[in-house]
Amino acid sequence: MTKKEARQQVKEWMKKLDKNYIEKADQSIFEQVKELKEFQEAKTIFCYASMKNEVDTWQLIASALKQGKNVGVPLCIGKGIMEVRQIHALDDFEEGAYGIMEPSRRCPILSKEKIDMAVIPCVSADREGRRLGHGAGFYDRFLDGVTFPKILVCYKELMMDQVPTEEHDILMDQVICDE
Q1: Known binding site: residues?
Q2: CATH of range 3-176; options 3.30.70.3040, 3.30.565.10, 3.40.50.720, 3.40.50.10420
Q3: Binding site for substrate: residue ranges?
Q4: pLDDT of residue 159
Q5: pTM exceeds 0.85
Q6: Which parts are annotated binding residues for ATP?
Q7: Which regions of the chain are under pLDDT 70?
Q8: Measured between alpha carbons, how far is residue 173 from residues 21, 103, 146 in Å?
């Protein structure tokens, strides 16, 4: 199966998920990430700002800010290129391209070297930490060579037995789903 075919298959699975399942799964994943030693010990976390059809991270971002952690979120600045901007509150977000919430460009850039752990999105994943993204390569480029723990979050109902991969794909350190 190609990545393109896998993405199509997962889109069909996503259509079958009901709102109740998604809400419970989001809460379960939030609780699990919050309990991770890596999260509890991290001074600085990197976390994507979720959009429709992704595991919800807004509660996690709010929790990290409330705990006094430094929080970096991605800002796409070019084709396949993103940087991390440090937010201090949820109102540091603004609507960007395609209605996606992103950090304000006024937020300071946060260097990768300061990140203690990252929460990474996916379209699908497998239990070995292989990630199927949207195909633009933002995360593979960004995560190349980093040493901080990469925590992938995925709905159990969207996980695959084996995600198709290519040489440049970055393996995640841990996969958390709602089970």
Answers
A1: 3-7, 54, 131-139
A2: 3.40.50.10420
A3: 54
A4: 96
A5: yes
A6: 3-7, 131-139
A7: 98
A8: 26, 26, 11
